[in-house]
User: Fold this.
Amino acid sequence: MGRALRRSGLRCEGVNIFLADGEAAFQEVFHFHLHVFPRFVGDAFRIEANWGTRDRSLLDREAEAVHSGLAALGFPEMETGGRSEPLT
Assistant:
């Protein structure tokens, strides 16, 4: 999606993707509902949240729970490394 937006001719230097799944996540239309926000430096778009730092051991336990949930659905084991540069 990000690569397509960057190549579209729209002003897009980055992308935020937001999925609302369930009423507690502010979903109002109860089907697959995905918001894609093309972003650029200085666009003033903000998502307000508590961005505080969380304990690493808690994050690791939660990540393992998510991996277990994915495995239960038949998803293959995933790499845990991240990219330092966006795909272009």
